[in-house]
Amino acid sequence: MIMDNSPLIIETDDLQYEEELLRNPFSVKHWQRYIEHQKDASPEKLNKVYERSLLQMPGSYKLWHQYLRLRMQQVKGRCITDPEFESVNNTFERGLVFMHKMPRTFDRALCALPITQHNRIWPLYLKFVMTHPIPETAVRVWRRYLKLCPEDTEDYITYLISIGRLEEAAKKYEWCVNTDSFTSKYGKSKHQLWSELCELISKNPQETSLKNAEAIIRHGLQRYTDQVGMLWNSLAEFYIISALFERARDVFEEGLRSVMTVRDFTQVFDAYAQFEELMLKKRMEEVGVEVDEEEEIDLELRLARYEDLMQRRPLLLNSVMLRQNPHNCLEWQKRVTLYEGKPKMIVATYMEAVKTIDPKQATGKLFSLWVNFAKFYEENNQIVDARIIFQRATEVAYVKVDDLASIPNYCSILTWISNEEEALKLMKRATAPPPHKVAYNDESEPVQRRVYKSLKLWSMYADLEECLGTFKSCKAVYDRIIDLRIATPQIIINYGMFLQENNYFEEAFKAYEKGISLFKWPYVYDIWNTYLTKFLERYMGTKIERARDLFEQCLEKCPPSYARNLYLLYAKMEEDHGLARHAMQVYSRATKAVPPEEKLAIYNIYLQHAQQIYGVTRTREIYQEAIDDLPDEGAREMCLRFSEMERKLGEIDRAREIYAYCSQICDPRITAEFWAKWTDFEVAHGNEDTMKELLRIKRSMQAKYNTQ
To answer: Where is the Pre-mRNA-splicing factor SYF1 central HAT repeats domain (predicted)?
Structure first.
């Protein structure tokens, strides 16, 4: 290991160090002290000391590290062909023999160290190769590194783009998006990586072959069908930069025909419109002011193409909505509206709609689409075609019975215009029962077998019979509705009104009674109200006992919230055609039957009619009953009215007693009006003693309510 065979000369100052080393030849500390002492000596002498120390301790990293740094410092600034360089290299080689676990060259370090320590080498290695203009070496180093750590591929892509190796960067992007196990360490989604890949390809077409670029982007379009707007724009941009403008238009058109979301449509359409606008402006700038016929035709063609794109936007957007949900009836109807003025396209759209829509998945009213289709033919005087459409509409497997029931309604109206008899036959056929009994709510059966119980259909049938049919046929329709137990209170009332209009009063009353037996309170209220009103209009007071029985039957189970009008009607009948005593009894019963919030109004009516019939004095009992029955607010009002009546009759003491009684429910803090009226009363009709009594009672009430 010694550099040469020249004799070792030991000076006097070195003796103490040499003696220490003789005693401790394997002490790094003593060797370092000796080296520190020789730092100002000649390089040859200092190197010999290092060589002697390494001869004793060849495994000392510290000594080797200091020695190698010293040797590199000694050759710094010399020519690379100097023999000293070879000597230093040999020293490094000897160091690696003994320090093979800690090599300082990157490749040898990776070969010598266990793989668990490679993470300490690679960052330094990559930083080293990227900071020097050696791209080929750096690429090779990166390729080796990615075999160990593929998750850092994005950093490699960034480096490739920085050195202009875009083709390999695109391949690495493609590997990232196609490898399911790859996860971006920067949190990017696969779609983001696809977007970056497509952007790289579209903006640098010269680095990638045409076929490969289109295949890559289209593969992304197949994978991400809900976020493809930017990918379509990238493919179109690729062709635009490549000066293939017609191919770019084809891509834009294909994108508009295939996107599935409004967001993607907006991105593609805006890019397409911007492209056409820029092409038009560019062409106009090239042509200048003076243009020949051929250039003028070219400009008009470009302008027409741009205008056509703008005009097609609503239709293209509607196509996107229909691709999202081809069973959306409303969007199909909007599409028909967009084709206004183009009969052939309207018919084609309707035909496509009814073929495409699945009734079980339909959104909106499918029957309205069929009806509008038939109406379109009817508006164009094609009645036969309209009837064919209606016939086909009745064969559709609707989800709801009401949807099917709406078809004959419109169809009968249309038929009525041309043939009244045919309209009635159509409704009769629509309401005919199936051979076997079917439950209306049995969804396992088709709606065509359940439609005979549709109230909507029967209501239309009844209306047609009233307008076009005979009395007998119309009555049969109403009876059939009641027999099927699908009638509503309004149907019963309509039936009764129809019979009355034809002077079949008793039949009308029987119809009302049938309705009363079908429904319970509160649904039967309108039937009872109409029945009793019509009965009284018909018979006046000739059948008073029968009318009383009807009222009693009605009021027996009447809820309090519906009782007021019926009791008032009952009392009015007794006043007009019966006995006044009975009328007062009805009013008295009404005060107990109505809800608390309506009692005050009933008592007011009761008092008014009692005063008219029996006079003022007879109302005292009613006032007393009302004061006991009403809540505090109503009782106060009744007391004031009662006392005022007694005052007018000259019964001052009775009026004073009423005031005194009412004061028990009057808090002076919140009922100042009552106390003011009592005070005015005493001022007008009392004396000093009565005024003192008033003040005493007022103080008593103040104390009472303050305590409470």
So the answer is: 154-357
